[in-house]
Every structure is written in C-alpha cells, then in structure tokens.
C-alpha cells in the first residue's frame, strides 16, 4: 500500500488547507498518483480518502475530497486530447465551481483556432472512439457521441459512468466560472453563495423537477443568477443556506413573471426587450 498510503498521510494537511488555491494545487498533484496507482491500491486509496471526510465531515474536507476526485476523472479526457491533438483543455461549469450534483456531468472546453473547430471536433470524436476500443485504457470510455447539427458541436462520452461534455472555444463558460468564483469570494461567509446554490439546485432538480436546459427546463446558469439576485436584495440578513432558500422561494413565488424577468442588472420589464423570432434550422 506504499503507492498511496504514504503520500496520502504526508499531504493530508495541505489537501484540506482552508485556501481554495492550495486545495486545487494539491488535488491536481495527488490525482496524478491516483490515476497511476495499480487498481487494487487505487480502490484502497479512494476508500481511505473518502473516510477522511466521513470521520471529520467539515466543509474543507468535503471540498478537498471532491476536488481530488474531480481532477482524477478530468485528467483522463483532458490528457487524451492534449497528448493526441496538442490542444489545451479547460474545465468550466458546476464541477470546477464545486456546486455539482451527483447526477451532473463534467464540462470541458478545448481552445483552438475557430477555423479548425469543426475538424478538431471530428478528431476528438475519433480519439475517444479509439480509446473506447483500447483494452488497456486507464478508464473505460463508452457511448461516444458527436452532434454535428447544432451550432456548438459537443462531443459526449461516458467515463466510469460519468457524462463528459467536450465543447470548443466556450470562452463564455470560462468567463462565467471566473465571475461566479469572484462572487463567492466577495460574499464570503464560508462559501455561502456556493452552499446556497447546491441546496436550491438540489430541490429544483430532485424535487421540483424544473432544472435541466437539455430538456427545455431552467438552466443552471439561470438558477445561479436568480440566487445571486436574492443576495443582492437581502445580503445583510442571509446567514445560512436555509435562509437563502427561504428568501428564494418567498420572493420568486410572488414575482410578476408575466411582465418582468431577472437579469444580472436586476429586474427587467419584458416589454423593453426586443422581439425574438425563433426559426427552424434548414435541416429541421
């Protein structure tokens, strides 16, 4: 058990250090050991790391463990694309922001020149299909899909039954990630913004069944803006996720959705918005 046990014990204080940048650095470093450990030692190492959070269920420990497992899983798809195609791959969305649900996916974006984007998407698809047939692959890759019809051409696959969405040049997604991280730091209170999003997101997804842009429901980003608006209105009285959740339900249950909507700039009258006409695609 030398491969994982000694590094796990040596790094424990740094992996749960109460600074995000330290946790991120250690998670990425230790994830390399996880990905390269023999299977038997990998299973034992994962169990012991999970026990660290179970025995002391502090927020810093939960955050550190989730970051470590995220980098371990992210490394597979990112490394494949980087090594085979020579492109940089970056995470965005709920996972690097640490507000993901158990049923969520991992969003990655490949940065490349816009004039090779479509060809690169085909190359990524081919690389993942090749890995799917590789008997010696680090992780099992399956259900590789490539949607050539939509404007943003994502490549999807499953790695250890986790959905991986690979898009291209999603600078808006990366900017949103940076923006929301800055909001969380500004609000403070032990990551109250993030914790509130997780609570409200869980209720909307598992109980109300209203979350999921893929199914024509509310998107995660829209939900984050709604939560941010609650902080804008009631920040001085919000001391925990339950307080935020109560304000969220109370305020938006009485909101005049027929005539107004919510944006980053606050409440906006619908009549002031330009008329938008949806058109079917040529092949639709």
- How many helices? The count is 11
Distance, first to last CA = 57 Å
DSSP strand count: 7
CATH homologous superfamily name of the largest domain? Answer: Beta Polymerase, domain 2
Low-confidence stretches: none
Write down the CATH topology of the largest domain.
Answer: Beta Polymerase, domain 2
CATH architecture of the largest domain: 2-Layer Sandwich
What class do helices, strands and sheet pairing give? alpha+beta
Query: What is the average per-residue confidence, as pLDDT, rounded to a whole number?
Result: 82
Summarize the main sheet: 5 strands, mixed
Q: Given this structure, which CATH class of the largest domain is correct?
A: Alpha Beta
Organism: Vitis vinifera (Grape)
Protein name: PAP/OAS1 substrate-binding-related domain-containing protein
Domain PAP/OAS1 substrate-binding-related: 187-283
Transmembrane segments: 211-231
């Amino acid at each position: 058990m030398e491969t994982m046990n000694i590094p796990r014990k040596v790094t424990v204080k740094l992996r749960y250090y109460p600074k995000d940048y330290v946790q991120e650095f250690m998670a990425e470093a230790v994830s390399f050991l996880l990905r390269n450990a023999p299977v038997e030692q990998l299973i034992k190492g994962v169990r012991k790391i999970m026990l660290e959070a179970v025995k002391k269920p502090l927020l810093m420990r939960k955050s550190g463990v989730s970051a470590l497992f995220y980098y371990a899983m992210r490394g597979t798809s990112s490394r494949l694309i980087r090594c085979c195609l020579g492109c940089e791959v970056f995470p965005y969305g709920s996972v690097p922001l640490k507000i993901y649900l158990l049923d969520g996916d991992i969003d990655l974006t490949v940065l490349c020149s816009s004039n090779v984007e479509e060809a690169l998407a085909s190359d990524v698809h081919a690389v993942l299909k090749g890995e799917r047939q590789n008997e010696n692959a680090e992780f099992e890759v399956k259900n590789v899909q490539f949607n050539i019809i939509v404007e943003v051409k994502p490549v999807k696959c499953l790695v250890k039954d986790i959905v991986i969405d690979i898009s291209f040049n999603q600078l808006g997604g990366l900017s949103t990630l940076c923006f929301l991280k800055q909001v969380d730091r500004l609000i403070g209170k032990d990551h109250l913004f993030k914790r509130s999003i997780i609570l409200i997101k869980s209720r909307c997804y598992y109980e109300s069944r209203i979350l999921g842009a893929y199914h024509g429901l509310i998107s995660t980003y829209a939900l984050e803006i709604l939560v941010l608006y609650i902080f804008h209105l009631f920040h001085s009285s919000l001391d925990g996720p339950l307080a935020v959740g109560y304000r969220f339900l109370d305020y938006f249950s009485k909101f005049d959705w027929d005539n107004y909507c919510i944006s980053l700039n606050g409440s906006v009258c619908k009549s002031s918005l330009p008329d938008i006409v949806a058109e079917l695609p040529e092949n639709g």
